[in-house]
Amino acid sequence: MDTHRLQRFIERTWDADVMPALVDYIAIPCESPAFDPDWEATGHMARAVDLMVCWARDKLDSVIGASVDVVRLPARTPVIFIDIPGDVAAPVLIYGHLDKQPPMDGWAPGRGAWIPALEGDRLYGRGGADDGYALFSAITAVLALREHGLAHARCLILIEACEESGSADLPHYVEHLAACIGVPAVVVALDAGCGNYDQLWTTTSLRGQVAGTLTVRVLDEGVHSGDASGVAPSSFRIARHLLSRLEDPASGEIVPAFHADIPDERRDQAVQAGRALGAGFHRQLPFRGGTAPVSDDPAELILNRAWRPQLAITGIDGLPGVADAAAVMHPATALKLSLRLPPTLDPEAAAARLKTLLETDPPYGSEVSFRIDMVSRGWHAPAIEPWLEASLARASDSAFEAPAARIGGGGGIPFLAMLGERFPQAQFVVTGVLGPQSNAHGPNEFLHVPTAKRITAAVAHVLRDAHLHAADRPAATRITSPSDLPHATLYTL
User: Fold this and answer.
1) Are strands 92-97 and 186-189 parallel, antiparallel or unpaired?
2) Single pTM value for the model
């Protein structure tokens, strides 16, 4: 493989073809169904699907046997399913998503969630890095190999449209498309992060999550605080007290029932990653004033984010804004809780445990409820096979001119836990462009374009090496086509 020639093709394709399409995609407010319940009526999701499908069909038009389908099960968001024939039977399955988080406030002047802005190496806007680039990157990697006459594994690309809502529709599509997917040898997910933009990072684990709403009600209506305070207990104080059952208010440490053993290998990798990143691991966050991280040891911070349970309060109801505050004791407080869980902890059991912890023996006999809104399973990567470890090392050396690195992730990708259970023998490459300050889900989210190009080259290496690793297997044939499957609508654009 002439890696320099390959990289030049990828650079040209990104600059000429991918960037204009990504700019158009960022401008589409295709929010995930959790944030846009009327997504079907607004039509933004359909616009994003159409953009990607038209681009993919144009680029793969000359590839004999390639297919680009939009599959829609009743009452579910659509998926894009692309099948590119290869030279071995066991496919590489590449995953991404096209739905987005809501816009949020706080974007710098000239930027906005739906206002793409290219500033130097950064393409600002919602969804470019998380992770609209995935489809374009995967197809470009395949085209780069084919342009230079290099054999590759059969490539399946699956792009879903409800990842930011917990991927509730995805299990139904994985089951529906089972005959099309077959048994993948490798699963590549392009929805993860990177410790820096200087080397290829792969994610070794992702946390699970329980999200829910804690509501405390003490009165039927608001009452003058001069009359009620000291007589009626504060709903906010009770909520704060209940949270202390779960989280130490001084240290932030979660009670032992929600912890899991951290494997020695992951501890060692955290130390190695900490040495590579140093204080840069926490300096990427926009700390205010003299605010400091919870530890000055990068390895401990990495383990905190990847393997230890952590609580975040992501929303609150029942209190007016400061400018509208009156001398009133409010009847109820509702808090949105997000409890991140160790990768190996059973989230269903954790959810039941959390509900019991918060609702049992409510202070003052107040009305307390915890509604479980979402449960998401974590993921722990299987042991990496020597050929793939060598492939990733070569890919990082070639594309980044630096060694590959591994790190545990703090978020979650439900797709991985699902595929890990379904295909226990599959290898996983979980990577992405969400590095320092890229701020997925927040204001000023950006795609670091050079890293996206290099990750595209890394995907090409994996597709090439997956072919070489399985060269003794029979030639690939399509198992079936989505058009042969029942109970789904296939869109024709």
Assistant:
1) parallel
2) 0.88
